[in-house]
Amino acid sequence: MLSDQFKSLMSGPPVRKVVRRSHSTHVGWFASRKFEQIGYESHLERDFLRLCEADPAVTFLREQPCTLFYADENGVTRDHTPDFALVRNGAAMIVETKYADDAAKYAYRTKVLTRELALRGIAYKVMTEHEIQREPRLGNAIELLRGRGTKPSPEFAERVLELLLASPGGVAVGDIPDMLGVARDARYALYAMILDGAIFLADADAPLTPQSKLVVGGVP
Asked: Residue 177 falls within a domain, yes or no?
């Protein structure tokens, strides 16, 4: 259950707009199928958005959601606008994305905000490229997002679920179109079902290939 403090922090619009730098190619807008269009200011933020978009457990996401205040090592009050707020599996989290070399510079702020936000029922996490851009996780997300423009028909979705329910060990992505007698590009409809949380990869930590098995149920 989300804390009242988190709901209060999220009650208004984002506190500032995405910075537009005319000379930068790292600033842009991510067209989400789950949320409103979301701005990003680095490749790292863009890749984080890809992970969230491909994760059916993420049900809320906002960029630059609020301003936090904390006391630095000298007792001086500082303000900090984190990159994102999200809800995953019903739990609230505020996320700052940083390249590892930069993250170390903010260790004290991270320690203070982690402690103070925990008292409000909110997790605070700094995510670096080592977690966000880890493979095959990111590559799988990018591949799955090729299906976000596809809407499986109710009949197709029902047949897929029936097939997987009859196959407890799972069925390979590449085998399902032939088994159902549908076109090979039906894999994009399968991807859409994964994005919706209707079916799951049996091994989410392995590269997504035509041999990857799909199952019904699981922990996203």
From this structure: yes
CA dist 179 and 46 (Å) reads 36
Q: How far apart are CA 21 and CA 28, in angstroms?
A: 10
Label residue 203 left, alpha or beta by phi (over 0 means left) and psi (-120 to 50 means alpha): beta
Enclosing domain of residue 112: 4-132
pTM of the predicted protein model = 0.92
Nearest-10 Cα torsion for 50, 53, 57, 60: 110
Which mean pLDDT values do the consecutive 10-residue runs of the chain (220 residues) have?
82 67 70 91 96 97 94 97 96 97 96 97 97 98 97 97 96 97 95 97 96 82
Alpha-carbon distances, residue 209 vs 139, 163, 191 (angstroms): 11, 19, 12
CATH number, domain containing residue 62: 3.40.1350.10
Q: Which of 132, 167, 184 is the last residue of a domain?
A: 132
Q: Strands, E, within 117-219: which ranges? A: 123-127, 171-172, 200-201, 213-215
- 202, 161 in Cβ contact below 8 A? no
Domain boundary pick from 82, 98, 132: 132
Same domain? For 127 and 210 the reply is no
Q: Which of 125, 122, 51 is nearest to 95 (CA)?
A: 125
Cβ atoms of 145 and 208 within 8 Å: the answer is: no
